[in-house]
Design goal:
The chain is mostly helical and 268 residues long. The protein is built from twelve helices and no strands. The longest helix is centred in the middle third of the chain and has 30 residues. It is globular, with a radius of gyration of 19 Å. The model has no long low-confidence stretch (mean pLDDT 84).
Length: 268
């Protein structure tokens, strides 16, 4: 079955969307979208380093994403504004990576595949990496759900309850770095944040509890993945951007649905 490229693409897209959507709930709650951008943009530098050292692209991207994520985590409490730090790191790492790739002798790489994703070319090994990474992310979220949620809602209350907010922030930071490494083949470095934020933002309008929001975000992410791939095949559009477009459409539908319920509820 896995010899069929479409089945491999669907499995890869669903695995990525599932983990990214659930983790994206914390990104939305903490307003960390720009953080995700900074980590994702740095992934291109990881691609360049992997090519230069002749190692796995996944290993290079994961290493750089982890370093950048920890660096941002350590610098976020400094006097300088976090948004400024994120802006410098995000665009600096992206530009450095793009320049470095062109300077590597004999390097043959389709940069567009890493910027916007190339899910239709995933291999069995890619699927194993994606689902392995997704399982780790979801497993950590499962075991740390209460602590992460408490640290998100009130760091002071978390401390009083014996939860270390800094530790939970670091865990969340590392999970974001892991998602970047896993998702780069599916939606690319420039679109990873969209897969984190959009399904969670849509689910927020439908849910009445954090757990309900996570489940709905996962459903929206999976629908976006399958719908985007279907759009890509039928309309011959890029797969990664098509997945994001479908996520936007689903977000718009949830927004319209919420407005209609509000109007219906206020009607005499």
């Amino acid at each position: 079955m896995l010899d069929d490229f479409l089945v491999r693409a669907i499995l890869a897209a669903i695995g990525t969307a599932l983990a990214a959507s659930v983790l994206g709930c914390f990104v939305v709650w903490r307003r960390m979208a720009y953080f995700g951008d900074a980590t994702a943009h740095a992934a291109i530098l990881g691609v360049a380093i992997a090519l230069a050292l002749n190692i796995s692209i996944f290993a290079g991207v994961a290493a750089v994403a982890l370093v950048v994520a920890v660096l941002i985590h350590r610098l976020s409490d400094r006097a300088q504004g976090t948004d400024t730090i994120l802006g410098v790191i995000a665009h600096g790492a992206l530009a450095t990576g793009l320049v470095a790739v062109t300077l590597i002798p004999g390097a043959r790489i389709n940069l567009e595949a890493y910027l916007f994703g190339d899910v239709l070319t995933v291999s069995r090994m890619d699927i194993a990496v994606i689902w392995g990474g997704a399982a780790v992310v979801l497993g950590v979220l499962w075991f740390h759900w209460s602590a992460l949620l408490l640290a998100t809602l009130s760091p002071d209350l978390a401390t009083a309850s014996g939860v270390n907010p800094q530790r939970e922030n670091l865990i969340l930071t590392l999970l974001l770095a892991g998602i970047v490494a896993v998702a780069i083949k599916v939606v690319g470095a420039l679109l990873i944040t969209a897969l984190l934020v959009i399904p969670a933002a849509g689910a927020r309008r439908l849910a009445t509890s954090p757990e309900g929001m996570a489940l709905r975000a996962a459903a929206i992410g999976i629908l976006a993945a399958v719908g985007g791939l279907t759009m890509s095949l039928q309309m011959d559009t890029p797969a990664g951007p098509s997945i994001v477009v479908m996520a936007v459409i689903l977000f718009a539908l949830t927004t319209i649905g919420e407005k209609l319920r509000t109007i219906g509820g206020s009607a005499p």
